[in-house]
Amino acid sequence: MQHKNIKKECEDLWAKNKYYVLSKSHKAYLNIREYLKEKEVDIAYLQEKIQSAKDIKESKKDFHNAILHVWGYFKKEANETEKQGLFAILEEYREGKNSQDAVIQYLNALLKRYPNEYLQESTFLTGEQDEIMA
Q1: What's this model's pTM, rounded to 2 decimal places?
Q2: Are 69 and 22 in contact (CB under 8 A)?
Q3: Which is deepest, 20, 26, 83, 117, by most CB within 10 Å?
Q4: Which of 58, 48, 44 is nearest to 103 (CA)?
Q5: pLDDT of residue 1
C-alpha cells in the first residue's frame, strides 16, 4: 500500500509542476515523464528534478511550447478576440517586447473567465515554484 501512496504523491506533484518544467525544458519534462512510468518512484527525487528546472536558463521555444499546451484547455471556450490577444502577446514575448509574466497574466485572466481546477493548481500559472512540494 505504501508504494501506491508514494506513486500518487508523485503524480499529484507532477500534475502541479509539469507545465512549469515544460516551460523551462522540454527535455527535462520528457525525462521526468519517463521516470514516472517506473514501478517505484521517489518523491524526494522528483522534487529534486523539478527544483533543478528552476536553474535552467529561459528558453523562448520551451516557454512558447508550454503556453500552447495550456492554451489547449481554453481553445474551445475562448472567443476569437481572446485567442488573438494571447497569440499577439506571445509573439511580443518571442520578439523580446514583452515578458513571460505578461503572457502568464493573460492566461490567468482567461482562467478566471473559464475556470479549470487542474490549471488553477499549476505552479506555472500560480507562480508558486518556490513551493515545489506535494
Answers
A1: 0.91
A2: yes
A3: 20
A4: 58
A5: 46
C-alpha angle 13-14-18 in degrees, rounded to nearest 5: 135
pLDDT tens, position by position, 72-115: 999 999 999 999 999 999 999 999 999 999 999 999 999 999 99
Please tell me whether residue 117 adopts helix, strand or coil conformation: helix
Please give the Cα distance from 67 to 111 (Å, whole number).
Answer: 13
**Alpha helix positions (H), 57-122:** 60-71, 80-94, 100-113, 117-120
Q: 3-state class of 119 per DSSP? A: helix
Select from 79, 31, 81, 75 the least CA-distant residue to 52: 31
Residue that has been written with the C-alpha cell 499529484 in this structure: 12
Report the alpha-carbon distance of residue 72 to residue 67 in Å, rounded: 9
Question: How far apart (Å, rounded) are the C-alpha atoms in residues 7 and 124?
Answer: 22
